[in-house]
Design goal:
Layout lengths: L7 H7 L10 H11 L12 H7 L4 H15 L3 H35 L3 E6 L2 E6 L8 E5 L7 E13 L1 H4 L5 E2 L18 E2 L4 E13 L5 H4 L13 H30 L4 H15 L4 H18 L2 E3 L3 H6 L4 E5 L10 E7 L2 E5 L10 E3 L2 E2 L6 H12 L4 E5 L2 E5 L2 H11 L5 H4 L3 E10 L4 E8 L4 E7 L1 H6 L1 E6 L2 E4 L2 H15 L4 E9 L9 H4 L3 E10 L6 H10 L3 E5 L4 H10 L8 E4 H6 L2 H7 L3 E5 L3 H13 L4 E5 L5 H6 L2 E5 L5 H6 L2 E3 L4 H41 L8 H11 L1 H7 L25 H26 L4 H22 L15 H19 L4 H4 L8 H16 L3 H6 L1
Parallel strand pairs: 9-23, 9-26, 19-22, 23-25, 24-25, 26-27, 27-28
Antiparallel strand pairs: 1-2, 1-3, 3-7, 4-5, 4-6, 4-7, 8-28, 10-11, 10-22, 11-12, 12-13, 14-15, 16-17, 17-18, 18-21, 19-20, 21-22
The structure holds adenosine-5'-triphosphate (ATP) and calcium ion.
């Protein structure tokens, strides 16, 4: 179908829809059944069986299975079956971990699924893009990604960037008029908007004419590459580390086997023991556990209202040293209420709170009658007309559809009894030039009952003043003299220094029937009418969050389009601007070179009257000074800076699709305090990963050393293969997972940010691993020797004791891993998962030791109660010997 050839009416007829009411819910459900969901077919998924089998592709596991097979053939059935069972259980665990990680990543994708504004049953509401059907009427604006193929029926300054489809990155202006021509290429179908393209400017309304695979995008969907799974820098480091550890573990194993054979052990026994040892000592599960820890952290972050879109950001968050934050809505509540108005040298106060339209006007403490104050009336009326926002009463609350700044103007007008309904008969809007944050203005052309036309502009007062040539003063137009300008400047200052956000209103009478087609033509030679000052209260939790960030070595920088005085006043209230801190304005930034900015960037805490384009310059300057930068944003123009920042952050509520797509983190509540929570969580996740690396590696070192030392001392094997495998599965597995869920230490937000290039073993971790591992090995061996010397005929008993000591030493050590400082620093019962994991491990150990049917399988014997004193005594040595000792403190 050539939709571009159809008129609006024809399009509505063909798609059987209604322009005023849209489709009914029933019709939508029916069409969804017929057409299917509005989705592009996805690439094939890896089958569950394949994921399961992948768990066994590891080389050492294969060697182990082969060795087991041999032992089975040699008649050691019980050993063979037990080992295979353990390997399979291990495989299942790996499989579930991987599934879980994948599931939570998918859930994330759904959370950030795109939504669109659709008209259904006569009401505009947000709908998931995948639920669109042909005939849906949809609305979109700057920053939105188009959700389906659409025939436009309304377009206001609409421009769409279609590079995803056509490769052309220059945005195309869009109109609604019918096009003629036979084979108009996609790029020239200017009354169409296509799925996957981006609105860069203006706004539009249209009818959905194609969904899912029946869109232009669907036809090329096969060409789209499936996104690759990203791996984080830490995961990469661990993979490299893993390779080194494999070699070290193998060498040590060969050493153990070699010495064992030299000392007269049987080659076959040593081989099986060696392979088991290698399987246990190689931390093959490390990357998988890291993924699980990351994804669990990501889920915790969702509960705290931030969504991670790019997994590596979780790690980078912990390194953030500067947060550049928007002011409006992020540091402040974005609930605006006009409290002051100014025109022609006169100031009025306006009472009321929030968007509730009750309040009264007063001047010098006395109530005034608005109908007697001509300029005040005009100021309010024009503020209402040059406005795209509606405020409606819903139950007891007033809800805003649109921009809070504009809502404040609507409510101020309502307080003087001006509503759109009331003034509809007197004025109509015939042209609209929407607000953008680079121009910092919005304009309309209106026509009165008397057919007289005006341009009405509202926007940043300093900008409007520059574009004004005269001013309303004592009900007359006066040429704006330098002293007049100064008077207006003073009025702006006086409002701004009370932390008020100021909007100026100006206008220009037109010749009758004069038409204006561009914003440049509209916004010039204006008559300055007056100012409206509105409060935007700071978010109550921000001040504390800023302080916590400062304690954590993170600087907070405010970046705002607002007036410099307003910005400064709020920055001071929030504790962002310290004594001696600098404030830079957008126009100063313009004149500075990149290197000039770098020279001062560390002293600047507030950037005011900036355009989104300046943000990139700021990010680059900070990065040049070796900062790890988090940068927030919401609009299309913020996207480059969000992308360039180390942690790009988009607003979940006010953010456009473009900003979200560029971001690594989305704030569901647009709140600065949420960034702080995310950083805290990011630091904690990293610390937890360190904790279980420390635990796992120290355990592995212990396991290898106990075998190595025994061989050197010409002792029998202190542990049999199945015991080693059991330790690997149970003692190493459960508690390590639980460490991934550990609570943050009290001082995570009191430390400096971690350096992004910091190695895995930094801050004394390597020393801790080696020293604790060494002690675990020695303690286990000591227990073995004591019992074995006592009764050399009962090797199995001594082995059971060694097994129990190794397990207990690890289970005590795991609590030590929770703290950078010492085990005594933290309450061991804080992490209930860990307590649970340790108790389960102990119970499983007791079962293996005391349950008769299992004893032959695990080569164990019931341990006499008094022997437990030796076991527990020795098992505590590794942890408590070094706990809080000078050695640890010096190294950490
Ligand atoms: N809808 C609007 N119509 C006209 N002017 C506006 C509108 N919204 C804001 N302004 C003016 O433009 C200025 C810049 O607004 P912009 O949205 O770029 O930044 P901001 O919201 O003030 O700050 P931040 O960057 O912290 O969100 C405002 O200070 C205000 O004077
Ligand atoms: Ca903004």
């Amino acid at each position: 179908m050539k939709w571009y050839e159809l008129s609006e009416r024809a399009t509505l007829e063909v798609t059987k829809t209604d322009k005023e009411n849209g489709l009914t819910a029933k019709e939508v459900a029916l069409r969804q059944k017929q057409e299917g969901f509005n989705e592009l077919a996805e690439g094939e998924k890896q089958s569950a069986l394949l994921v399961f089998l992948e768990q066994f592709k590891d080389f050492m596991v294969l060697v182990l299975l082969a060795a087991t097979l041999i032992s089975g053939l040699l008649g050691e059935y019980i050993d063979a079956i037990a080992i295979i069972a353990i390997v399979v259980i291990n495989g299942f665990l790996g499989f579930f971990q991987e599934r879980r990680a994948e599931k939570s990543l998918n859930a994330l994708k759904e959370l950030s699924a795109p939504q669109v504004l659709a008209l259904r049953d006569g009401k505009w509401s947000k709908t998931l893009s995948r639920e669109l059907v042909v005939g849906d009427i949809v609305k979109f604006g700057s920053g939105d990604r188009i959700g389906a193929d659409i025939r436009l029926i309304d377009a206001k300054s609409l421009e769409i960037e279609e590079s995803a489809l056509t490769g052309e990155s220059v945005p195309v202006p869009k109109y609604t008029r019918v096009l003629e021509g036979n084979e108009i290429p996609l790029g020239d179908q200017e009354n169409m908007a296509f799925m996957g393209t981006l609105v860069t400017r203006g706004s539009g309304v249209g009818v959905v004419v194609g969904t899912g695979m029946k869109t232009a995008m669907g036809q090329i969907a096969d060409l789209l590459q499936n996104a690759e799974a990203v791996i984080t820098p830490l995961q990469r480091k661990l993979e490299q580390l893993g390779k080194i550890l494999i070699i070290v573990a193998l060498l040590l194993t060969v050493l153990v086997v070699g010495i064992g054979v030299l000392q007269g052990h049987d080659l076959y026994t040593m081989f099986l023991a060696g392979v088991s040892l290698a399987v246990a000592a190689i931390p093959e599960g490390l990357p998988a556990i890291v993924t699980v820890a990351l994804s669990l952290g990501v889920q915790r972050m969702i509960k705290q209202k931030s969504i991670v879109r790019k997994l590596p950001a979780v790690e980078t968050l912990g390194c953030a040293s500067v947060i550049c934050s928007d002011k409006t809505g992020t540091l402040t509540q974005n609930k605006m209420t006009v409290t002051h108005l100014w025109s022609g040298g006169k100031t009025w106060n306006l009472s009321g709170t929030g968007y509730d339209p009750s309040g009264t006007f007063s001047a010098e403490g006395k109530e005034v009658n608005v109908s007697r104050e001509k300029p005040l009336q005009q100021l309010l009326l024009f503020g209402l007309l040059c406005n795209q926002t509606t405020v409606t009463k819903k139950d007891k609350d007033y809800v805003v559809d649109g921009d809070p700044t504009e809502a404040a103007l609507v409510v101020a007008a309502m307080k003087a009894n001006f509503t759109r309904q009331n003034v509809k008969g007197d004025f109509k809007v015939i042209e609209e030039f929407p607000f953008d944050s680079t121009r910092k203005m919005m304009s309309v052309v209106i026509e009165g009952k008397d057919n007289k036309r005006y341009v009405v502009t509202k926007g940043a007062p300093d900008v409007l003043l520059t574009n004004s040539k005269s001013i309303v003063w004592e009900n007359r137009h006066q040429q704006l003299s330098p002293s007049g300008r100064e008077e207006v400047q003073n009025a702006i200052h006086s409002l701004a220094s009370q932390a008020l956000r100021t909007i100026a209103v100006a206008y220009r009478p037109l010749e009758s029937y004069e038409t204006i087609t561009t914003e440049q033509a509209a916004e010039k030679e204006l008559v300055f009418l007056g100012l409206q000052g509105m409060i935007d209260p700071p978010r109550p939790e921000v001040k504390q969050a800023v302080k916590e960030c400062r304690d954590a070595g993170i600087k907070t920088v405010m970046i705002t389009g607002d007036h410099v005085i307003t910005a400064e006043a709020i920055a001071k209230q929030l504790g962002i601007l310290p004594k001696g801190g600098r404030v830079l304005e957008g126009h100063t930034l313009n004149t500075m070179s990149q290197s000039e900015l770098e020279d001062v960037v560390d002293d600047v805490y507030v950037y005011a009257r900036v355009s989104p384009e300046h943000k990139l310059k700021i990010v680059k300057a900070l990065q040049a000074k070796d900062h790890v930068v988090a940068m927030t944003g919401d609009g299309v123009n913020d996207a480059p800076a969000i992308k360039a920042a180390d942690i790009g952050i988009a607003m979940g509520i006010t953010g456009t699709d473009v900003a979200k797509e560029a971001s690594a983190l989305v704030l569901l509540d647009d709140n600065f305090a949420t960034i702080k929570s995310a950083i805290k969580e990011g630091r904690n996740i990293y610390e937890n990963i360190r904790k279980f690396i420390r635990y796992l590696l120290a355990s592995n070192v212990g396991e290898i050393l106990v075998m190595l030392f025994a061989m050197i001392l010409a002792l029998p094997l202190p542990l049999v293969p199945i015991q080693i495998l059991w330790v690997n599965l149970v003692t190493d597995g459960l508690p390590a997972m639980a460490l991934g869920l550990d609570q943050p230490e009290d001082d995570v937000m009191k430390r400096r940010p971690r350096h992004p290039k910091e190695g895995v073993f930094a801050r004394g971790l390597g020393w801790k691993v080696v020293s604790r591992g060494f002690l675990i090995g020695i303690a286990t061996l000591a227990a073995f020797i004591i019992v074995y010397d006592n009764n050399p005929d009962n090797l199995q008993y001594a082995q059971t004791i060694a097994f129990a000591t190794l397990v207990m030493a690890q289970l005590i050590h795991v609590f030590d891993c929770r703290s950078e400082k010492s085990i005594f620093d933290r309450n061991p019962f804080e992490n209930l998962y860990l307590v649970g994991a340790v108790i389960s491990s102990i119970l499983l150990m007791l079962v293996v030791i005391y349950y008769p049917p299992l004893q032959p399988i695990f080569h164990t014997m019931a341990i006499a109660p008094r022997e437990w004193l030796i076991i527990l005594g020795l098992a505590s040595v590794p942890t408590f010997l070094l706990a809080g000792s000078l050695l640890t403190r010096k190294k950490s």
